[in-house]
Write a structure and sequence with these properties.
heterodimer; A: mainly beta; seven-stranded mixed beta sheet; four-stranded antiparallel beta sheet; B: mainly beta; 0% helix
Chain lengths: 109, 122
């Protein structure tokens, strides 16, 4: 089964910029995989940040952006804030099903 | 405002069948041709795993790793959809979420239930 890869952890300073990536074990990520990014805080259901590669979900601050960088999907946070400290998951549409990445734990310090 | 609510036993014995229901309010499953209705799970302290989807017509897609044990069904008269997972083990202990998946080239889980913890233990 195809594996969706994410960095297990990342750290960013307040006000800094960080790019999280979402890759495939056996292929390049493209827009046809409709990469979607979710933010999850402890005890809560995930919420959509970015869908269909680069469309920001309603109410999501514009410091969050999505793109394809090389062979991977990317989530960039520009001007990180303390409450961005969360788990971030990408999900890809693959062969009629959905496959989540393992998630990235982002620390803001 | 669309709302989804999971319900079902919080404790299931090993080798038995896990059964959960998701009740949808604020929209009708039977008229929502732009959406799939999904189950997603998250073991304690671990990541998210897609379990499967169902369309209002009853057509389904399942995670290949769970396909032999999973059945998702829909009851449009009650505006509910359900998950059955057979032959459970401790590895099936997780928070189970129901969610709405937008299709039409979007593939975004845009609404989620609050999640329900199911523990597999004797």
């Amino acid at each position: 089964q195809t594996v969706v890869t994410q960095e297990p952890s990342f750290s960013v300073s307040p006000g800094g910029t960080v790019t999280l990536t979402c890759g495939l074990s056996s292929d390049s990520v493209s827009t046809t995989h409709y990469p979607t990014w979710y933010q999850q805080t402890p005890g809560q259901a995930p919420r959509t940040l970015i869908y269909s590669t680069n469309s920001r979900s309603s109410g999501v601050p514009d410091r969050f952006s999505g793109s394809i960088l090389g062979k991977k999907a990317a989530l960039t946070i520009t001007g990180a804030q303390a409450d961005d400290e969360s788990d971030y998951y990408c999900v890809l549409y693959l062969g009629g099903g959905m496959v989540f990445g393992g998630g990235t734990k982002l620390t803001v310090l | 405002q669309l709302q989804l609510q999971e319900s079902g036993p919080g404790l299931v014995k090993p080798s038995e069948t896990l059964s959960l229901t998701c009740t949808v309010s604020g929209d009708s499953i039977s008229t929502s041709s732009s959406y799939y209705w999904s189950w997603i799970r998250q073991p304690p302290g671990k990541g998210l795993e897609w379990v499967g989807n169902i369309y209002y017509s009853g057509s389904t897609h399942y995670n290949p790793s769970l396909k032999s044990r999973v059945t998702i069904s829909v009851d449009t008269s009650k505006n509910q959809f359900s998950l059955k997972l057979s032959s459970v083990t401790a590895a099936d202990t997780a928070v189970y979420y129901c969610a709405r998946l937008r299709n039409s080239a979007l593939y975004d889980f845009d609404y989620w239930g609050q999640g329900t913890l199911v523990t597999v233990s004797s």
